[in-house]
Predict the 3D structure of the following.
Amino acid sequence: MSDVVFEETATMIAAGELQSFVPFGREHCRNHPTAFNLQLRELQPASELWSSDGAAGLVGSLQEVSLQERERESWQLRKGCEVREEEVEFEEELYAAGTVVVWSQGSRTQASNVYKAFTVDGPVQQALWCNFAAPQKKKDEEEAEQTVCIVQSSCINVHTVSGKDFIAPLPFPVSNVWATKFGLLLERKNTATDAQLPGESLPTVFSMLHPLDEIAPVVCKPAGLFEGSRVQYASDATMNIVFSCCQPSVVVSYDTVQGTHSVWALRPVTQDERSTVLRCSAEPVGTMLGLMASGLLTSHLRNISRLDSPGGPGPGTGTSGAVTSGSPLHYGALHGHQSRIMTSSPGSNSRVHSPSISNMAALSRAHSPGMAAPSFSGASRFNTSLHSPSPRVHHGPVPSPRVHRGPSPNSTVNDTMLAPELEPIVPDLCMEQLWSEAAGGHRDMSSQASKVFLTSDLCENRYLCFLVESHQQLRCVKFMESNNTSQLIFTSVTTIAAKDAEPLQNIDAMLVLEACGSLVLYTGTTRVSKVFVPGLLSPSFSLTNHLSHLGTPAENVSTPANAGSRHLQRLDDAAMPSPVSELRGPNIKHHEGSFLEDYSFQQATPCIHALRDSACNRVTLELSSGSMLRISIPEIATSELVRKCLQAIRFILPKEAAMKVLVKWYNIYNAPGGPSAHVEWNLFITCFMTLMGYNTERLNWTRNLHFEVPLSPVIAAKKARPSDGGSEEDLDYLLGSHYHRQMNSQPVCSCNPLSSETLSSGSSPPSPLTLDSAAPLFPHIPALFYVLHLLHQELQLDELQRARASSLVCLLQQLARDLQLDQYVDLYWRDYPSLISGFTESCVIDQTLIGQMQRPSFLREEPPCVLSFLIGCLRADPSPPFPCLPGICERTRLLVLSYALYIVGDESATSTGASKYLVKLSAGQKYCISEPHSRRQSSVKLQSSSESLAEQLVVWLASEGFTLKDLESVPFGVALPIREAIYRCREQPCSDWSEEVCLLIGRQDLTKQAHKMTLAKSKASVGSGLSLDPPVATEADEEEDGMSDIIQEVTGLIWSQDLRVQEVRRLLQSSRPVRVRVVQLPEVSDHEYIEEKENKLLQLCQRTMALPVGRGLFTLFSYQPVPTEPSPVPKLNLTGRAPPRNTMVDLNSGNIDVPPNMTSWPSFHNGVAAGLKIAPASQVDSAWIAYNKPKSPELANEYAGFLMALGLNGHLTKLATINIHDYLTKGHEMTSIGLLLGVSSAKLGSMDMSITRLLGIHIPALLPPTSTELDVPHNVQVAAVIGIGLVYQGTGHRHNAEVLLSEIGRPPGPEMEYCTDRESYSLAAGLALGMVCLGHGSNLIGMMDLNVPEQLYQYMVGGHRRPQAGSSRERHKSPSYQIKEGDTINVDVTCPGATLALAMIYLKTNNRSIADWLKPPDTWFLLDFIKPEFLLLRTLARCIIMWDEILPNTEWVKSNIPQIMRGTFDPSEDINMETMAQAQDYITAGACMALGLRFAGSANSDAFDCLYEFARTFMEIMTFAGTAAVQTGYYNLQTGLSMILLAMSMVMSGTGNLKVLQLCRFFHKRTGGEMNYGFHMSHHMSLGLLFLGGGRYTLSTSNSAIAALLCALYPHFPAHSTDNRYHLQALRHLAVLAAEPRLLVPVDVDSLKPCYALLEVTYKETKWYTETTVELMAPTMLPELHLLKRVKVKGPRYWELSVDLSRETLHLQSILSRDGVLYVKLRAGQLPYKDDPQGWKSLLASSVHHHRSGVRAFKPEAISTFTSEPALVSFAEFFCKTSEGVQHRDDTLVLFSAMLYECVTQECPEMLPTYIAIEQAVGALCRADLQQTFPLWQLRLVVELWDSRGQRGPDHHSLLTNEFLPVMKNMVDLQLDRWLADNSGVLRSYMRGEALPEAAQSIMLASFLVYRSIPSMRNTHTQLEGCSSLGDLLERSSRLKIPLRDLLRLIPVLLGPGSGPQGPPGVPLQAF
């Protein structure tokens, strides 16, 4: 039966690391108080269970637990998945028992530990690992989320590694769950009767792609040509899944009827398949379905609802309905099933909840008989016996009659429930059949596989194996990917007799337990050897064939087919035709009997009876005694070199030959008592050469290898003495040994010419050594030689592997000699002169046999040498493509292509043109030139040619996974060009490079940037290393003022000279009592004095109450809340302390009248300020917002403000709708205001419908005219109207615009409606209208008929009221009984709103005609009719419409004042001076306000100077008690001044300008008199804007920002704290919407501290200025991004970094939004600006002028002052100073110091090793102790690079300094020339092809040839010798490609000694 491919003679290998195994979870659970544990305890006396040997005790007790109990314990192991810091292999175990699941990890070095443990409510049915694909927000790619899924009876708990938990309810009982590549696959548990109906049942396989997704049925696509092979739901109840796998994505199923296995590919469903399955077929499909009338069905369904009637169906009567394959499955069909979970057991008589019935009823709405099908199937979900009236259907028992009762009057299903449409469930995955077993007649029911796994063999064939226990067979199906890798092709099936098997993933093998109980290792279907487990006897007896069933532990897969023979019998009787079961019966009985008879015997010697839990190369053996052992199977090779050789052999040989070699090697290497690792290579060479036909005892160098290692177990037993010569007996013994015969795979004696005389008598001449042509590898010798040669070249390119290359050379030179490839031998001799000279023997290969060798076409005469190829690239010499082994010589490929790209300059080298440089070998003996394969070529964006080659090289290398660590192991000469490219890119990297590229070029500052980090998060790591720590305050103070979260480090850098931030904190704190200074005059009584103090306190409280508005702006977004604590709200303290005794002064004493509700709005503002601290990036969810709700009702206002703030920073979108509803129904006015404004701000401009409904309820005008009048408080209406403006901002929504337009002029209604505070409502409507049509100007689509501008103009200047249009006409029929307005517009109410609406609609449109409407009137008569305040608004509106004409100078401001006020006045005219003064001041204030908006956040110095001048003027007027102040009025002047101050703060927003701060402080101190609440509010808002967000934020001038600022800074401030008449106070906070982060904070990437750095900011060209570049010292505010062209970090102290904004601004925006952290990297040799502001301490400062003197003056001790790199500091410490104990020569010290100096000053510390390596190489040559010529190859590469760069011109920046390399080069030249002068004869004899010289000369000769790059001269000397003249010589040598300067060195040798060493006459040799 077993057709095994290749059978070895019996061999045996030893298993290692034997240890007993107990699942760790069991140990853990033993200490876990669960029910499972308690049962164990009851089973046994405690003393026994917790005996000393805990494990044994527990095992004992487990055997007494009933079978059912034991099934509840299961575990699985896998190889550790997640990447840890140290690459250590570890195993993970998932253990489930009872309700506990334990996930543990452990490795060889580390004991197991619990990683996560879960306890669930119900018993765990199954626990498994699964990776779900979680879609990422940003890109299309999906990231896999690792999870553990715990299956219970009704739900699946999913726990991700990152800590998320999901619970997915199961809509039906599940029999099994499988993890796949896409998510979980669920198998529905089939009820016993499902299979009895014809027609198809419901789907049985479902998928869940994510715990939050809907469970969807899986579609299956069976193979086959017949009609039934179309797509349908997987609904075959006879199909059991037995295996699933992620890579490749396949599922294996078993058909219980046919007894065959099938393999299915699992993939996402295609669009066609989806539509095929979902399409409803209209024609009747099933036979009986055509007969059903839909009406009948409906009536049945109604009847189902009466399931609670007595006499329910007995168990087993339920049948399954039929679903046509074409009809869709509806949700109802699934959900109907949920009710069955709730009922007790499916068959019992239990009540079904009616909601699910209504689903069912809805399903029955049938358009055609075909459509009726789903409902029918749905009904059957209840397991009721619903039957169609057709007599053909009855298969089961006769149904109970009650089903046929007609519709009863009390039917619980309503007819209205039939209405809703039900969407079908869309399938996600499709199973496509790939392969199916041939159905064999002899197979019986139980041939279901108990174990399925994938394995691969050593030659990379892949197999799908399944173990059929009943047949004791392992069936292996070979499969491969199709050419386009889209499909799997299954080829042949091989059967291996086996009782159990487990795959060993990482050694490409599987372990098979044979029926006799012995373990055998197979690779694929090739038997390798038996496995010897120490301590276990290999069973000599053979048990009965059917040993398996009762012995195996309960499997994880518990399906009826393998649940043990007891179940089997019942199943057979029930489900199979009787003859078979009769046959089967006795068989089973016999089986049980035999098992029991043997049982006692088994206990004596435990034998293995099952394998389980393989991970990596470890596997668990289950012994018959019940204990378990864990063993590991040894790997195929431990040494990297052997592994690589085996890879190369496998690559080139045909698969069968390769398999022989590998199996042979595996057996030899792992023989019991086998070799230790250090002799592995010797063993390999011996084995390998013997397989090629060498007689290794005859070769001297291999003979010595023999005796280092016992070669076979037999010799090991004899303990052969390792004598060098060996004795005859030993040799004879060896030759006759079984091992040797096996190695030669034929009898040795017959053809072996070796005889005893040869060794004993040295006298007789030895016969020539020959090769045995019958050896298995003999024909392949040339090919093998070639691949090993390429492997040798690969190893040369890796410093870490190069030592191994020399051991490979011994083998190579032998093969090269024997194949008579002299040039190869010459090449090896040049590389290892001293080594190769020692080898002389060669074996004769018979000429007749050479024909048997397959000489591959790629084996050329000229040996491929990778270093020569690279030198050729540097010389621009075209060379033929270099051969490469794909997948093995990866480094060769990388370096060859790198040189091709960077040195040759071929940009296509890394993409399409690679074949010009590389040729791939393939095992088919031809050259096959094809695309070089690359690992991740697809993800490389190959840049256009404009970018430099260096950049392309770096990007390409990074995409290939090349890192700096790899670069360190590249030899220094080869690496130099790559280092140079890296060095060039480091100067000016692109801002959009990936993280890997940035790491490669050593710019960690850029990689850090790619990681999203904010300052607040890195605060812990940053530490406060700033000298400017704030004065330490007490804990209490810190906490309560609410401003402690400003990041001190940054503010300390921005304002390092003073403590202005502390000052702002002092001015804005409102949580401590104020100081009330009142001097008690002698005539004032005590009582009056107390009143005086309280009045003074009342004045001060006006200020205190206004502070929170400013504080909110100051602390904006500075705090990340802790989700488990409520956000702190500092209290608003309105008490005072009176010096000198510090007595309390309180307003509540009753001595003076305090306005009611005085604190309600201030506490609202206080709440807003507290909420605004929360940064938008923080983790806030609905629960936390509700959690912050205060318990006491007096804090409700604060919470209202808090809600509004959460809206402004965008967190309110997370608040659940139910909470919003909850807050609004309370009817608390403030809460409603805060919530409505907050939600609207959060949904700015989104036109969100749900929010619109929310707002609409609060605006009567938006409700239908007939709706009930809701009593909405006026302020809430105002907030709702503004909310509409925010939600529809900039959308130009027609209906809302129309409503708002009419609302501006809403007349007062009867019954006191709308009579108070009408101004604020009208203003709100105007602002909202402006926001809806923001910046649309005259392009308002579809609003021409509304005449918006004209209507607004009328509202502004007055006139007759127009008749109300539309819905509001009804409302305003009767005039107000309170206010007599007549039919004219009340301009005092409507003007402000209309003016600002015009301003916002035409914002920045420069529409002159509209602007002219807003000009102030130019006659005195008209001026008298306009309120001065309105002049301010009109001027402001006019200026921001004519946006581009605003100029930052006083002339422009004054130009807004009408001509008549500017001229000289004729005294005869009657001019009201007061009018004129007020008008002038208000117009000026309006123009200043416009100027502030135009330059908001720009810190424009002209604008600031202009505004400052006006502020000074106003203040001077106020201080004069003269005429002007009296004329204008103090209030008006103060209003104007407040506006100008706000304008200044807008311009200087976020900069903390000192002059503005002084003004704010000046006004802060003024209390009393006219200074009311509103003025204080405006001054402190100015202060807040000035330090917006603690200096991190500033204002934007986008349209949206201007609109927000107009709402917030409306120039009429409240007169007292409850005043909302003209403007709702809550709107003041909308200024936040205009804030944007533009602070750039450089953070040093090494210390993670903020630091100073010089920035160069380039502005784009505009019509006001040309492209300009300014230098700023960061941390600094950047200008608005749309004005900038690029931002660049300038040297010389930090690495340059440029962000080009003309390409994309997103990068910079994301930096700014994350606290503006820009990582910068300090250059070596530089100190940060903080330590060295002038740059005098830097090392470079001294050496700018005298470079060389700099080196001499350089003291190594000084290094720590200019670099902090530890490696450099220690180098200076140990190598540049004389230290006792280490004797350095002085010149070495000086040299090292100079190198260090160069590296640091040239900014390339990584070049230090290269400098040292060059110096070492030259030193070794001069001292003549070079052992190999490799360093000279490298030196040659360096020189060539230097030359090629020199030709391009001196401007090219070179890494090596101009002094160092020529000196070194000169030393080499001198040394070699001196040698040549003395030994020219040696060279001449070499060139004539005579014997090589003795060792010392040999090394120098090889050095000379390598360094002078003279080609192999064995065949070329004839061409060069005998040249008559120099010209002749030059002409011939050009063909050999010898460089000119090297040729000149040869002239004396070639042209004969006569010409002398001078070269051409008159040219001294040194010139070259």
